[in-house]
């Protein structure tokens, strides 16, 4: 039982041909064919990408929808410049989870303040 295994390449050079990429679902059906992504042509995706003005409007709407608690900003400003983005997000979420609807911070029980050795 020999099954054909696709060849994996880091990047596609000089046309896709019958080569397979590392991305699941991205492949070329054969020489001279269009690049396929999950059963549809990649050229169809290009037609659906937003124009720069549309993208800017979308970014503005998304930024307006994201509200940041003003009391969180000094905490984030104190974080080191070389801090990993996931650490910043985790800190912001943890801080926000400790806030009540009135804006006061919930005090943690004394036992949870102890550090693990």
**What is the string of SSEs from the N terminus onward?**
EEEEEHHHH
Shape: elongated
State the low-pLDDT regions, or none: 8-13, 16-21, 111-117
Strand order of the largest sheet: 3-4-5
Mean pLDDT: 70
Instruction: Write down the Rg.
Output: 24 Å
Strand % is 5-15%
> How many H/I helices?
4
Largest sheet: 3 strands, antiparallel
Measured as a percent range, the helix fraction is 25-40%
Number of strands: 5
Helix/sheet category: alpha+beta
Give the key terms.
disordered C terminus, 10% strand, 5 strands, two-stranded parallel ribbon, Possible citrate synthase, N-terminal, elongated, 2 domains, Citrate_synth-like_lrg_a-sub, alpha+beta, Citrate_synthase_sf, 117 residues
Overview in brief:
33% of the residues lie in helices and 10% in strands.
Describe the structure.
It is a single chain. The protein has helices at 42-47, 52-65, 72-77, 85-97; strands at 8-9, 20-21, 26-28, 35-37, 40-41. By secondary structure, it is an alpha+beta fold. It folds into two domains: 16-66, no CATH class; 68-100. The strands form two sheets. Strands 3-4-5 form a three-stranded antiparallel beta sheet. It is elongated, with a radius of gyration of 24 Å.
């Amino acid at each position: 039982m020999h099954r054909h295994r696709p060849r994996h390449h880091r990047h596609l050079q000089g046309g896709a041909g019958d080569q397979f990429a590392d991305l699941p679902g991205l492949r070329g059906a054969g020489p001279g064919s269009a690049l396929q992504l999950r059963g549809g042509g990649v050229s169809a995706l290009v037609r659906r990408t937003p124009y720069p003005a549309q993208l800017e409007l979308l970014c503005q709407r998304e930024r307006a929808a994201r509200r940041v608690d003003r009391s969180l900003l000094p905490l984030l400003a104190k974080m080191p410049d070389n801090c990993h983005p996931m650490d910043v997000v985790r800190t912001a979420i943890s801080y926000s989870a400790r806030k009540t609807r009135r804006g006061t911070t919930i005090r943690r029980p004394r036992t949870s303040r102890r550090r693990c050795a």
